[in-house]
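Take just one protein record:
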Amino acid sequence: MMQKSLVLPESAPLLSKGGWTSFLIVTIVLTGLVPVLNMWVSPASAFHMSDFLVGLIGKIMCYAICALAMDLIWGYTGILSLGHGLFFALGGYAMGMYLMRQIGLDGNYKSELPDFMVFLDWKTLPWHWMLSGSFWATLALIVLVPALVAFTFGFFAFRSRIKGVYFSIITQALTFAAMLLFFRNETGFGGNNGFTDFKRILDIPIATQSTRMVLFVLTALTLLGFYLFAKFLVQSKFGRLLQAIRDAESRVMFCGYSPVPYKLAIWTLSAVMCAVAGALYVPQVGIINPSEMSPANSIEIAIWAAVGGRGTLLGPIVGAFIVNGAKSWLTMTAPEFWLYFLGALFISVTLFLPNGVLGLIRKVLKSSTDKRAAP
């Protein structure tokens, strides 16, 4: 009796041909066209891209990385975190410590110690600053410190089967506690003022146009790289298990899989992505302080993912640009209405656009295609 062989479906390509074309166009625009328009086109020209606009886009790209990280844990795994601002800030503080050491004797007090330490009468660097003088050690700390914090927290939370609204509340409490800790002067993180007045990075002046453009391009490449990596991840067996955990965690357990390692892995990876975004954000914006850990900032990350369309990867990136672009415009033209607009936007998306802006676009395009195909 002949047995039928099982034929497994072929794995889907990472991106379609149209997708790769769009990806290439975006890469060329961000890494080629923007530098040309900013550095080589005359400021008098209508095609000139100002330093302010370049800095704003660079900052929003950092936020987009956070939104992408949120999508991996919320959109694909069903874990809503309201504390991812903590990991963003930890990466920013690690980079900020290095940048403060790069100031050297150029500070107001002409001391090797950061100015705030001299003001507080510190005599030596605290122990947790010892590796901050090395750029390569700083890169390691940007990854390892948030990863360790996320892994430790996630290990106990996921093993205890804490999920849903309880998990969200605990993550919010975690970032709020960290914010209060970093506000204290004796912790050695600059207190309320944080770190600012950066001079150099890798002994190169940080305020020059060329340095800022290099940081912009690095941020763009990091965002694009994380997008491709996330795309690969969600299309793999690991990603399918994450989606199964999101949809029916108990069934995954009955099938013989333990959800804890998968949730812990994606949770830690998501935290590291946010930390990398924070490290890229600080030299471009020029400041890092404990307010980056505020629960409101973490809630905004979730809003970016919801507005763009969670569970799509591209949607949260679009959502980060939409919300932060509107924030930049409204805070200049009508700052008193910004919070009302943000609240109304989130409520409107929740009620009328459950799949976000990207879901609406796809629905309109599908409807248009169906109409054309109809006899």
Q: What stands out?
A: The chain has a mean pLDDT of 91.
